[in-house]
């Protein structure tokens, strides 16, 4: 074997030659107008063809380093792209065939199987945040059931149709077993959704282009019900809470999704509490009106702070008054009225 430099149809070769053909090891510099954008090949040759281990560099900066047969990738090889991404794959006559592992610059890896150049069968994607997606390919297109497992153990089960998430999806929280059943349209949540909490409550709501919008209802497992409205993903405006016994609370959600503003609680026996709530708790000056007993129609003026009663002025008519500074003081009273605020399903956002 001798080492020579001479011209081939597609570039300039420098390397070992046998019978006037590249054979052994050599370098080929492709012509600037190479239709495949090839720049240089360094590697093994067999009777004039690029066969064996070699490295192909493209004008784009992409590099293939691996096995060749008759000038094309065949066997195991790595494709290193100019943007830093790397693909380790099996090749057959220039096409991917077998297991491929793709590593992106952000740390995401994807393992899939190729048949004659197209992805087919199961695939596994490990994302940089630690989450893992398992999905299917059919003729190079994401299709069929898929499952995403978050790093905290939460899961989403859904389906791909023509590369996009479509149809029903179920999100399950590992910590408490709560679930959300929603629908996707072209990869985005859209339409009716139901969330089941760990305590048996159920919320029905609607997504519009991935954002909660419009009327929503929470049904408590104890028979309670909360009606409110979503705007841009947050509870907002008027809300009505009805207990199973018929008691009712009218309140407002502010622009931050907090139950803050005027509120009115009407017990099933007609007694009422009116005032302000701050982040879901009574706060400030509040008035309580009795509906029955010796103080029917009388009002207490209460002072609340962060959901705790600080002081209550109780009026009995004819100027008679009793100040309650603490809940323990209520034991000193003669049970002039009987009132009980029912327990509630969660109202917070």
Automatic annotation (TrEMBL):
Q: Does the keyword Repeat apply?
A: yes
Matching InterPro entries: MORN
Reading the lineage from the top rank, the first entry is: Eukaryota
Q: Gene3D superfamilies under this entry?
A: Histone H3 K4-specific methyltransferase SET7/9 N-terminal domain
Instruction: Supply the Pfam families for this chain.
Output: MORN
SUPFAM superfamilies, A to Z: Histone H3 K4-specific methyltransferase SET7/9 N-terminal domain (SSF82185)
Q: Keywords of this protein's UniProt record, alphabetized?
A: Repeat
Read off the PANTHER family from this record: RADIAL SPOKE HEAD 1 HOMOLOG
Q: What is this protein called?
A: MORN repeat-containing protein 5
Look up and give the organism this protein is from.
Answer: Tigriopus californicus
């Amino acid at each position: 074997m001798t080492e020579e430099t001479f011209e081939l149809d597609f570039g300039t070769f420098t390397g070992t030659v046998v019978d006037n053909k590249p054979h052994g090891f050599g370098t080929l510099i492709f012509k600037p107008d190479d239709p495949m954008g090839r720049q240089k090949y360094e590697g093994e040759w067999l009777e004039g063809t690029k066969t064996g281990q070699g490295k192909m560099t493209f004008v784009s900066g992409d590099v293939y380093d691996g096995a060749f047969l008759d000038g094309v990738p065949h066997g195991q090889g790595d494709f290193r792209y100019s943007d830093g991404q790397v693909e380790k794959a099996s090749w057959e006559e220039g096409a991917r065939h077998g297991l491929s592992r793709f590593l992106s610059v952000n740390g995401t890896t994807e393992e899939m199987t190729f048949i004659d150049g197209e992805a087919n069968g199961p695939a596994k994607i490990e994302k940089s945040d630690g989450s893992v997606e398992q999905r299917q390919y059919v003729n190079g297109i994401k299709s069929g059931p898929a499952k995403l497992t978050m790093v905290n153990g939460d899961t989403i089960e859904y389906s791909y149709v023509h590369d996009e998430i479509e149809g029903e999806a179920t999100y399950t929280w590992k910590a408490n077993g709560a679930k959300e059943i929603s629908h996707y349209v072209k990869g985005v949540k859209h339409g009716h959704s139901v969330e089941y909490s760990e305590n048996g409550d159920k919320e029905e709501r609607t997504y519009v282009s991935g954002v909660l919008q419009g009327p929503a209802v929470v049904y408590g497992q104890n028979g309670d019900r909360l009606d409110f409205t979503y705007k841009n993903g947050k509870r907002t405006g008027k809300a009505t809470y009805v207990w199973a016994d018929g008691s009712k609370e009218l309140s407002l959600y502010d622009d931050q999704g907090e139950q803050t503003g005027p509120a009115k609680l009407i017990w099933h026996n007609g007694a009422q509490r009116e005032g302000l709530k701050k982040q879901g708790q009574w706060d400030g000056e509040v008035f309580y009106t009795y509906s029955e007993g010796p103080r029917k129609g009388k009002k207490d003026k209460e002072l609340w702070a962060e959901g705790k009663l600080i002081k209550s002025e109780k009026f009995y008519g004819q100027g008679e008054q009793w100040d309650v500074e603490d809940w323990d003081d209520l034991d000193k009273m003669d049970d002039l009225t009987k009132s009980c605020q029912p327990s509630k399903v969660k109202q917070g956002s």
